[in-house]
From TrEMBL:
Organism (species): Archaeoglobus veneficus (strain DSM 11195 / SNP6)
CDD domains: USP-like
Pfam families, per database record: Usp
Taxon lineage: Archaea, Methanobacteriati, Methanobacteriota, Archaeoglobi, Archaeoglobales
Domain UspA: 18-154
Transmembrane segments: none
UniProt-recorded name of the protein: UspA domain-containing protein
SUPFAM superfamilies: Adenine nucleotide alpha hydrolases-like (SSF52402)
Length: 154
């Protein structure tokens, strides 16, 4: 498991809503389009962008060098996706902030972020139909466990 947190800790005014946007390499820019519409429909919010890759731990038989190279490539790919999403959101006038990147058990990390960031809504991108996506996937786990309302965006 690898987690990268943002170094920025700009305070979010109490009167603004917090949207935790959970993206992956397959849902990033598509879901950003929908978030723009959601936020611009009168929902004064700060969008907190979290990049997640749901994966099992790397087996111990993988060399340290291979593991470092693998995670370096994953972080770079994630950085590019996060930059595109934040650029899309900010170009549309949405206050968007990067809050973290995680490679590991995704639903557990989203639930940890829920506790620390205290969002008003969690938006999870989903490649498939939202109903198909609820079959034992990340979205289903988050919907079942989160205390915060969850919006699944295709």
């Amino acid at each position: 498991m690898i987690t990268v947190q943002s170094n920025k800790s700009e305070a979010i005014p109490e009167n603004r809503a917090r949207v935790l946007l959970v993206i992956s390499d397959s849902t990033g820019t598509d879901v950003a389009e929908r978030v723009v519409k959601f936020v611009k429909s009168g929902f004064d919010a700060v969008v907190l962008v979290q990049y997640i890759v749901d994966m099992e731990p790397i087996p111990p038989m993988v060399s340290v060098e291979e593991e470092k190279r693998f995670f370096s490539e994953m972080r770079e790919k994630g950085r590019r996706i996060v930059e595109k999403v934040i650029s899309k959101l900010t170009s549309e006038g949405v206050d968007a902030r990067f809050v973290g990147m995680h490679f590991g058990i995704a639903d557990e990390e989203v639930l940890r972020a829920e506790k620390t960031l205290k969002p008003d809504v969690i938006i999870v991108g989903c490649r498939k139909s939202p109903l198909k996506g609820l079959s034992k996937g990340l979205a289903e786990k988050i919907v079942a466990e989160a205390k915060t309302p969850v919006l699944i965006a295709k």
